[in-house]
Each structure stands twice: as structure tokens, then as C-alpha cells.
Amino acid sequence: MTPHESYSTGETRGAQQMARGLCQVMGREISKGSFNTNIRQKITPSGTLQLPWSSINSVRTMAVLPWPFSSQPRDFSLPNSSWGSDMRHLYEHYNSQCEVETEEGEKKWGVWRRLPSYNRSLKYATGGVYLSKIIQSKARLFTRNIREQGAAFEYVMFVNKQEQKCVCVFQAGHLLEGPPGHVHGGAIATMIDTVTGTHATYLSGPVMTANLNINYRSPIPLGSTVLLTCSLDKKEGRKTFVSCQVTNTDGSKLHTEATGLFLSITMGHLL
Amino acid sequence: MTPHESYSTGETRGAQQMARGLCQVMGREISKGSFNTNIRQKITPSGTLQLPWSSINSVRTMAVLPWPFSSQPRDFSLPNSSWGSDMRHLYEHYNSQCEVETEEGEKKWGVWRRLPSYNRSLKYATGGVYLSKIIQSKARLFTRNIREQGAAFEYVMFVNKQEQKCVCVFQAGHLLEGPPGHVHGGAIATMIDTVTGTHATYLSGPVMTANLNINYRSPIPLGSTVLLTCSLDKKEGRKTFVSCQVTNTDGSKLHTEATGLFLSITMGHLL
């Protein structure tokens, strides 16, 4: 009943407790390891920057390989055959701005960065003293726990450091149903937590979610593609405030809007 | 950045739009059909009320049958072999108060009701004009979309009409990971939406989620069992305000607390 209390001292204290031994889930998605993998993919043995994913067709060819049997971890942020035309179009739009060609014909980073995404970045996380070895070994990131392509969360995130913006293209599969024929409010909240948390981590380093305040305006039809757009509202000490809007692909219809408060944690909290 | 706007006129208008053609997901969980099924299970051909689920052992026997091949829909709110001792203990505690014995030795309803739960109650929902027949036929409730018992959301809800309370016993499986070894904030939000929405529906009839405001206080270890306790804050016209606390099983530790605002929709909205 008191959304106004969300930024109170009590909450800060609670979130400090929460930070012990943990980092915000999204910290992993843009962790050093993930970025290294991403960069490695783009640099040839000769050291020049290549664009292996610049053609969507070549990406499709890569992505439809039977990834569960591959020795390489699957990067879920790359296109696969389940992606519809809206998802592909938006992916191409932002991906084309990840690298630009200089006057000398060389490639260099653009204003956007695509963030790779795995089903578990911290393979050997201990996760506190509570967990059995079985749970640890089988644990998977909530948004990447379904193997069937297109059935659940298909999404890719891009960050723009210059403008302190983050966008996520999200295609909602048939296993995310809430109201008949539409996406579950919890699945929308999950994507909001994921994207705002990623953005906060990108801006402030490792963080924990302290508060999410979500207004549901218009339902999202199952199977459709939406755009999540995040921006930084402000930073105050350990607090990072992020806003998020969920719209249809051309931004003309607002489905959901939310704010997130994230608390920075130090590396000491992770041990 | 403006959680205070959550109950504004704009939101109400948005939620009215949202209501078109839809009911809150939880409306289905306590729909007439589901309750009828529940009641049918309890009445023998001779018409007397039985307690087929009063012994947890007999329930286990039923629940471990290979349900995907059964012609009967699986009621996910019944115990299965993945439930740990905390989950079983709390289930027994509330289930034992669902029916009581009179002085004459007859059974009658107690103060609590267990709510059955299926992976899709509205089998033939049209879900608007957007959906392809394939998506419609494959759609599954988000919280019940994983077949492997114990891997994701294991939960059972009980409502107490007398006290206008609702509790949910929730065991978080290994596929719900967010921060390493802990439950994803989106999975917690999903359960909060599910339980507060169910409670609002129980109190006010079909509703849609308009706002969720969630404060994350202390992380939930993966694999553990928690209790979600909901209470009615107030009703104002079409608005139902519900509070929710997520605690450990004995209530001594607060993990998350939230408020939910739900808007009533009429049956006309469902057509």
C-alpha cells in the first residue's frame, strides 16, 4: 500500500543485507567473461576486427546448429530460426550500429553494443552455503531455462554508453501465458528486472535489485515482439535509478512502464 | 521514478484498455470450472463428502503417475515427489484446515480452501485476434510451463474467506536462478503477481493487474521453500489493493514485500 516507501532507509538496509554474497543477476550478463567472449568472436587471428554477425543470413546458419550438443556455450542473444520479422528487423537495426566503418575502410566500435547472454555465466557459483551440489550443477538462468527456441523468452539487449540508454528486443513465446492469449505479468516483470538490472550494472558496476514499481497499461499478445527502452534517471551514492518503458516495435503503443532502484555492491560482497 | 503515480487516473484508464478481452490470469485458477473439479474430487458417487487428499501418502501415489500421458489434467497444487519436507509440512498444515469433522462425524468445509492449479484452464481461449492457431494450441501458463517436477515453480495456494487472507507455499526450483545460487527477482515477481492476483480475484471477481510495487529485502536461496502471505488492504470502486509478504517458512525472515493494485473487469470484457 505504500509505494512511496520504496526508497526509504529501511529498504536500503534490507538491500544491503541482500547484497551479501550476491550480485545482481545481470552483472553476469555483462561480466568480464561474457564481454571477452564477445570480443574474441570479433577478432581474427591476425588481430583485425571482423563482423561475423553482420549478415543475418550467416547468423541464422550458425544459430540453427544443434546447440545443446555443441561444446561451445550458446549465446542466446544471436538470432535463431524462431525469430519473427519484427525481432529480426530490430536486431539488424541496432546490430548495424555496433560497428562502423571509418574513412580508411577499417571497422571500429559504434555507439551501441550487443550484450551476449548465456544460460549460466557463473558455472561454478557456490551460491551460499545453502545449496546442494545437485541444485548448483543444474541451476540455470530463469530467462534462459527453456531449450526449445521461440517457446519462452527470446531477447537481445543493446547498450549505448554515450546516451546512457539500453534497449531490449523481446519476443514472447507461447509458454509465457498469463491472461488467455497474452503474456503473464510476471514474465513482463522478469524482462523489466533483467533489462533495468543490466543497464544499472552497465552504468554502476555490480548491483542488486532493491525495488521494482511496475504499471501495466496494455496487455502484450502472446507471440508478439516488444521493445524495452531503459534510461538512467539518476545516481545517488550507491543507488542507481532506472526507468523502463515496454512498447510495441514502433514505440506507438505503451504496454508497461516501470522504475527500478538498484544498489551497488562491492566485489567483497561477492565472496 | 514516480511510483506515486501508480494509482493515478492515467493508470486506471490504461488498465481499462488492458481489460478488453482479458481477465487476470488468476481468474482462471479459481474459475468455476476449477472449483467444480475440486469439489467433484471430494464427493463420492453416493454423494457423501470424502477426504481423498487427507493423507499425504495417498496424494503422493496419485501425483507421481505419469501425468503427461493421463487423460485427466494434472492439478499442480497436489504434492509430488519433488516437494521437500518444508513444502509438505506447510501443505499438510493448511490442507488439514480445509475440512473439519462435525460432532456428528460428518465432514464440512473448514476456513481454508486449497486452490487447484492447471497449466491452462481455458483450453480453447481465443486470446484476441492476434494469435496464430499454433500459438493458441501450445500456449501454457507461465508458472506451469516446465514438466520436470521440482525444477521450477512448485506452489500451492490456500484462501481464507473469513479472514480475507491468502497464503502460498512456494518451493523454488533450480531453473529459477537469478543471482548465483538464488531466485531471480522476476521469478519472485511472478509469484507475487500470481498470488496477489488470485487473492484479488477471490475477493472481487475477475481482475487485471494494474500495478505491482516490489521491495526486495533479502535474497531467496535456490531450492528453498518460502511462504507468501496476502491480505486485503482496501477496496475502492473497481480497485482492489492487496499486500503481500514473502518470508521463510516460520515467518521470521522477510525476503520480499509488495503491494498490488487490481482493477475489476466485467464479464463483458471477457468476450
Automatic annotation (TrEMBL), chains A, B:
It catalyses: decanoyl-CoA + H2O = decanoate + CoA + H(+); (5Z,8Z,11Z,14Z)-eicosatetraenoyl-CoA + H2O = (5Z,8Z,11Z,14Z)-eicosatetraenoate + CoA + H(+); (9Z)-octadecenoyl-CoA + H2O = (9Z)-octadecenoate + CoA + H(+); hexadecanoyl-CoA + H2O = hexadecanoate + CoA + H(+). Its EC number is 3.1.2.2. It is a peripheral membrane protein. Keywords: Apoptosis, Cell membrane, Cell projection, Cytoplasm, Fatty acid metabolism, Hydrolase, Lipid metabolism, Membrane, Mitochondrion, Mitochondrion inner membrane, Transit peptide. It is found in: Cell projection, Ruffle membrane; Cytoplasm; Mitochondrion inner membrane; Mitochondrion intermembrane space. GO terms for cellular component: mitochondrial inner membrane; mitochondrial intermembrane space; ruffle membrane. Gene3D superfamilies: Hotdog Thioesterase. It is an enzyme of class 3 (hydrolase). The keyword Transmembrane helix does not apply. Residues 181-253 form the Thioesterase domain. SUPFAM superfamilies: Thioesterase/thiol ester dehydrase-isomerase. Pfam families: 4HBT. InterPro entries: HotDog_dom_sf (IPR029069), THEM4/THEM5_acyl-CoA_thioest (IPR052365), Thioestr_dom (IPR006683). One of its GO terms (molecular function) is hydrolase activity. Belongs to the THEM4/THEM5 thioesterase family. This is Acyl-coenzyme A thioesterase THEM4. It comes from Hucho hucho (huchen).
